[in-house]
Sequence to fold (333 residues):
Amino acid sequence: MNREDLNLTEKSYEAPKQNLWDGRKSPPELGVQYWHQQVKFSDLTKSDPEASKPKIALLGYACDEGVKRNKGRIGAAAGPDEIRKELARLAFHKGSQSITDYGNLVCVDRDLAGCQNSLATVIERLLDSDIFPIVMGGGHDIAYGHFKGIQKGLQKRGLSKIGILNFDAHFDLRPVEKEPNSGTPFNQILTEHPNEVSYFALGIQKAVNTKELFIIAKEKNVKYLFNESCELTNFDVVTLKIDAFLEGVEALYITVDLDGFSSAYAPGVSAPSPLGFAPDFALKVLNHLLESKKVVALDVAEMNPNFDRDQSTAQLAARIIDSFVMNVSVKLT
Fold:
């Protein structure tokens, strides 16, 4: 990869910061005990023939321009680095998972489309190299760029039926009026790829989605479950619906908007709510999705450090990624 091929400039890309990956020290003879000891680093703009190819890529999407346009609370551009800090301190239990931090894509001069296009290009290249992408946001406009890269990468493998499973309080199906924002990504995706994409939203809250959005969801054949159904006591019903959805897709992209969780667990988001699902429910569903062997990418969106309390939201994002990495069997279709 090089800067020109990836549509990157010195301002639109930040190489990985190794100082973020700090944590408890352990005797060398014990080997890897923590995430900060396992993660390696690679600058997307520099070729390193000696570098070994990882199984998993961590990439930051340092952009909240879409949130600003959507009249949300800005600050999510700083989310990826805060998630890294919390990941660094976690115990690491799967030495077979090689992980590389590829730094951050940065939105410059309000150029949301440019940042999304760069994300799409990087994701496509990672998939071309059989590297599993985990992207940390950043606003939920991350989904549009991430999907574009997934779609292009999987198209080369002959896969055309892609499922999107969104953990979220919102549909994010708003029509694009003047310009796209963090509330429009899935409308954009479904409009551009009506025959290739199936969309399932898990955790929808009626109070924060207008009648128009429910009409759009029906028109675009969106599957969804309301937040009140998203409980461990209802897990069998939830997984029956998810499994029926999975039968119709060849590959699955999972996107987690942290505002789908109750603000008791995730206060540091653009649009907090006292309602929302609990972490144990979300993690159990994630593990169930992994059993399908169809998952090809993950992102975690809307981590806003400006409104976090005791790093609880950053820690939640880190624990989601940690659980995912510990349970995923990385073998792209």
